[in-house]
Amino acid sequence: MTGKLFAIILTTIGVAIPGMALASAAPGETINLTAAGVGYTCLAIFVLAYLLVMGEEFTHMRKSKPVLLAAGLIWGIIAYVYASHGLTHAAEIAVRHNILEYAELFLFLLVAMTYINAMEERQIFEALRSKLVSAGFSFRKIFWITGLLAFFISPIADNLTTALLMCAVVMAIGKGNAKFIGLACINIVVAANAGGAFSPFGDITTLMVWQKGIIQFWDFFSLFVPSVVNWLVPAFIMSLAVPNLQPDANEREVSMKRGAVVVMGLFLATICTAVSFHNFLHLPPMMGMMTGLAYLKLYGYYLKKTHKKVGEEPRRRRGDEGQEIGDTVPFDIFNSIARAEWDTLMFFYGVILCVGGLGFIGYLAMVSNTMYTGWGATPANVMVGILSAIVDNIPVMFAVLTMNPEMSQGQWLLVTLTAGVGGSMLSIGSAAGVALMGQARGNYTFFGHLKWTPVIALGYAASIYVHFLINAAKF
Fold first, then answer.
1. Confidence (pTM)
2. Which of 20, 42, 72, 277 is the Cys-Cys partner for 283 at CB 3.0 to 4.6 Å?
3. Confidence bin at 68 (pLDDT 50/70/90)
4. How far is CA 158 from CA 222, 367, 408, 437, in A?
C-alpha cells in the first residue's frame, strides 16, 4: 500500500511539473535531469531542508531532521524516474557509493567522539578549565590564551569541542562583562577553525580530503603558516578592543580522574595507528581508528575491573593507588559511545546523500563547469570559502570532492584552507560559531560577530596570499 501511494505521489509530481517526461534510456546510461521538473523538485527539496538547518537557532529543530527527510525524498524520486525508464539498478549503485563514503566518515568520527567523551568523563577538560580560571590572568591575557589553546587543541580534537571548552573558560572568567565575552568568543571561533584547517583531524572537510587520498597526511601541515595568519590578523586587531581589566580568581581546582593521562596517550596512539594504516598499509584511516577504539575498550575494561578495589577506601591524594575526588562511578566505554553527537552524525548522512543525489542528477557537473572551467581554480576556491560562511562547509567541500576538478596540489590545499576558515566570517558559518551562540547567549550574537566580519575577511585574504607565497612550488 505504501509503495503504491509513493508511486502515485511521484506520478502526480511528474504530471504537475513540466519537463518530467523523458525519452527512455538504454541500460547502463545516466539521465541528465538538470533541466527537468524532477531535477528542480529535488533542488527545491534540498534548499528548503537547508534553510531549516540554517534556522536551527530559531526553530530549535535538530539539523539532522530536515536533511534526513530530504535525502530520502531526493533518492526516492531519482530511483522512481530511473526505474520507469528501465534503469532499475542505476540509482542503487550510485547510492551505495555514497553510503560507503558516509560509512568511512561515520566510523572515523564515532571513534574520535568517543575518545573526546572519555577524556571529558575523566575530567581532563574540566581540570584545564579550572586551572585557567584560577590563574588570575587579565582579560587580555585570557583572550590570547584561549585563542592560542583553541588553535592548537582543534587539530587534535574537533573544533566544536575545542570552542565549547574555551567558551566555558571565558564565561567563567568574564561574568558580567559582555564585551569581553563577545570578543573572546569571536576569537575562539576564528582560532578553532584556523587550527582545524592544517590537520586531517581538525575539521570534517580536511578529514574528507585526506580520506579521499587527494592530500597526504604530512602535506596538510603546509597550511600551518597560512592558518596562523588567518587567526593572528583579526586576533591582533580585536585584542586592542578587549578591556584590560583583572577579574577575580575564585575557582576551586579540579583534579583529573584515575587513568586520564593514559586515555590521552591512547588517543595519541589511535591517531598514529590511523595515519600508519593509511600511509603505509593503504587502508582507510577509519580502520586505524576502529583499532584504536579497541585500545580504549581494553583499558576501560581494566578501569572497570579495578574500580571496586580502589573505591573501597577512597583517598584524597592523587596517584595510581588512590582514587581521585569525584571518581565514584566506574568507567563505562559504552556511555562514552552513547554520548557521541548522534545528531551531527545523522546530519552528515543526510548532507552526503543529498549532495550525492544532486550530483547524480547532474547539477554538480554544471557547477564544476561554471566555476572551475569558466572562472578558473583560484577564484572558484576562494568562492568556496565565502560560500562556506553562508552554507555549512561540509556540503560545499563534499560537492567539490564529488566534482573532483583537475587541480594542482596547491589548489587542493587552497580549497582545503578556504573551506576550513571561510566559515569564520559569519557566526552561522561553522559548527563552533553556532554552538557558541547558544552557550554564550546574549553575549555572543550573530550581529556582534558580523561587526568584526571585515577584520576576519582581512585575515582570510591574508592567509590566501601567504599560501600562494610560501607554497608556490605546489601550484
1. 0.74
2. 277
3. very high
4. 19, 30, 27, 18
Span 278-315, pLDDT tens digits: 878 888 888 999 999 999 999 999 998 888 654 454 44
Q: What is the mean pLDDT of residues 24-31?
A: 55
Q: pLDDT digits over 230-255, tens only? A: 999 999 999 999 988 877 665 677 78
DSSP per position, 221-273: GGGHHHHHHHHHHHHHHHHTTS--------PPP-PPPTTHHHHHHHHHHHHHH
- What's the Cα-to-Cα distance from 364 to each of 25, 99, 361, 407, rounded to whole Å? 21, 18, 8, 16
Q: Judge whether 49 and 354 are in contact, CB under 8 Å.
A: yes
Instruction: Return the SS3 of 89.
Output: coil
Q: Which of 10-24, 266-280, 358-372 has the lowest mean pLDDT?
A: 10-24
- Torsion over CA of 121, 125, 127 and 130, rounded to 10 degrees? -130
pLDDT at 327: 63
Of 378 and 325, the one with more pLDDT: 378
Helix/strand/coil for 123: coil
Distances (CA, A) of 31 to 7, 38, 225, 362, 416: 19, 11, 45, 8, 31
Cα–chain center distance at 254: 29
129-144 pLDDT, tens digit each: 778 777 778 889 989 9
Rounded Cα distance, 419 and 424, in Å: 10
Span 437-448, average pLDDT? 80
The whole-angstrom separation of Cα 307 and Cα 329 is 8
Rounded distance between C-alpha atoms, residue 409 and residue 475, angstroms: 6
Nearest partner of 69 among 40, 91, 39, 48, judged by Cα:
48
Burial 4-15 (b: 16+ CB within 10 A, else e): eeeeeebeebbe
The alpha carbons of the chain give a radius of gyration, in whole angstroms, of 24
Q: Helices (H), strands (E): how many in the chain?
A: 22, 0
Give me the residue spans of the domains in the chain: 103-342
CA distance 474 to 151: 25
